[in-house]
Amino acid sequence: MKKILILAVALISSLAATAQQALWGSAPVVSPEINPDKTVTFRLKAPDAVKVQVTGDFLPTQKIKTPYGDFDGPGVADLVKNDGVWEFTTPSPLAPELYSYTFIVDGVKMTDPSNVFQLRDVASVTNVFLIDGDYADYFKIKDVPHGTVSKVWYHSPSLGMERRLSVYTPAGYEKGDNRYPVFYLLHGMGGDENAWLELGRAAQILDNMIAEGKVEPMIVVMTNGNADLQAAPGESSLGFAPPTIQLPKTMEGSFETHFPEVVEFIDSNYRTIPSKQNRAIAGLSMGGFHSLHISKEYPDMFDYVGLFSAAIMPDRKVKSPIYDNMEGKLKTQFDKKPALYWIAIGDKDFLYEANKEYRKKLDENGYKYTYRESPDGHIWKNWRIYLTEFIPQLFKK
Amino acid sequence: MKKILILAVALISSLAATAQQALWGSAPVVSPEINPDKTVTFRLKAPDAVKVQVTGDFLPTQKIKTPYGDFDGPGVADLVKNDGVWEFTTPSPLAPELYSYTFIVDGVKMTDPSNVFQLRDVASVTNVFLIDGDYADYFKIKDVPHGTVSKVWYHSPSLGMERRLSVYTPAGYEKGDNRYPVFYLLHGMGGDENAWLELGRAAQILDNMIAEGKVEPMIVVMTNGNADLQAAPGESSLGFAPPTIQLPKTMEGSFETHFPEVVEFIDSNYRTIPSKQNRAIAGLSMGGFHSLHISKEYPDMFDYVGLFSAAIMPDRKVKSPIYDNMEGKLKTQFDKKPALYWIAIGDKDFLYEANKEYRKKLDENGYKYTYRESPDGHIWKNWRIYLTEFIPQLFKK
Questions:
Q1: What is the pLDDT confidence band of residue B27, given thresholds at 50, 70 and 90?
Q2: pTM for the predicted model, two decimal places
Q3: Cα–Cα distance between B226 and B246 in angstroms, integer?
Q4: Could you tell me where the beta strands, DSSP code E, fall in A311-377?
Q5: d(C-alpha B165, C-alpha B232), whole Å
């Protein structure tokens, strides 16, 4: 037995030069530990540290001052040191949710070395953990039939480049010859074609809701909405270039104008039902803006439209033919009576007023839409919830 | 302009509660910086830290003492503090390679907060950077046609579970109706169906070598060789359970015995050429062990076999029908004259002697194989190189 252990250790520890660190570098601590009462304990072994804190979206928000104004930021809690191990337990149970956090050790932000599960959001990497229950159960990988998730490259003539997108095909797609409706699901500024899969848990939500019979089997296409990029950071010919916070071609018409190329690619490479009645488009923040403009620019393309905390910006001065004649195009779109025009936003979202103005305009014209207002602000919690609420309404006619 | 900037910042910074950390939490430092002369500078802003080090496979190895013996571990270098920013520049240029590293801040291992590009290897997360040139150019994402990478679930009757595998289909697969040969590429102990894609850069290597005309377009299938697992850590119904170092069903026959189920799944779901002449199998370490046993157990399945630093263990006492009658099965396999039986290992690999013994046995029986000995030990550097050398030899008959 000991010999087998040595061999196993040797095999594993030599897999990477740094793997030994995990095995031998420090006595292991469990972190985070989700306790039976749904409180969560965070631990870090750091005997020489002077101050250790944890920050994350499970803590009450606090105002963060910036040169551009105050923003709601994550709260911070102090860990207490005992025998070299720092520890903090949440004072009360946490509600079901996918949470993210990092440590701050002597002023330096760092991920939790005991937790290999991390997500990148724009230029930040955080650890994640899941408290299950309620809608967060849809975020879990359950023993249900699983769809396939593919990273696929398509050629965009108008953008002049190969570009990557993510495609979810429902369980059973590979076998058989069924054709499926298609849902185009768009990310926000700073996101990419991975965002809905990683931060949004889209594949898990689809798998679980399809398995429950609440959602029609469908293909879900997640594009990259940054028209000057081929793909997510680290996945394009830019190599390991740091993510850029401000991208030049995000909301100036190029992405929206090229979108029929995406639909054409999907329709000719997947077994779709290529009709308006079998296409949906939705997006969060910038992706909501994109969905609004794409769906009105191509009024015969999508019968289902979802604006999740949409970045509606009436006063923008950006010029593109796609933003011209907004009122006329909206009239054309709504004269054709979309099967669903769904607007959702949090009551603390900084885009709340802009969305209210937009709804007012729709109301004035008698355009029919469904409105969903949730608590909280411009956060992934809301967008995951919106996804679970939007997809059961699709393709049911 | 300022208004647009504020809006952009608001959009981005509210995407996640912690995104502000990256924007406002600390003055940015660039790390790692690959200098024009191919030296590399690492930086960390940590005004309150007492000691900051960097450790990684770009540094000369050092012996690490463990309860189970000494192992070669990564070297460590001290960063020097200047105005709150710690810095270290390699004394000489680095050779082309995909390198990994982490910081050690006052004794705590942490990833580099300036570098969002990370890889998990077993239970360790490290940052990565790429020095291009030579074979490492194949690791880059170039402007060539890209294959599709899919995460697919299949049912294993013998293991009694849904399991996940990764499939690379070459550029152009979706269009047209060509059929392709299939290469089954297996990982090592502690790895999973993501390992060859993430640590092994398999998709990039395939894309680039196919584009150069050096490699036949082929489907590459990357399984999970841990027979008690559905999928990689965080990707199965175990949820965010920490990766287990020692897995119960890794080299005891279950995985090898179930392998025809994988081949059957691939042949019935992809446009393969379902013949021995159009199938290859190779793996690293434990995956080399698997490839050895699977290819001899099913001698009509694979015409091309690759053992990369194979975990050949003649003295194992593990019982499984698949390990019985090794000599007779090898004779059957080699009597059928495989198109290629390729054995590769580093001259410092702890499995060097075991491989030498195995080759001796093949020699004694006059079994034909190709041998490749490289410098270095049991590390990904070798396995990536072996992959670039193995695939040009496949399906060329």
A1: very low
A2: 0.93
A3: 10
A4: 340-346, 370-374
A5: 9
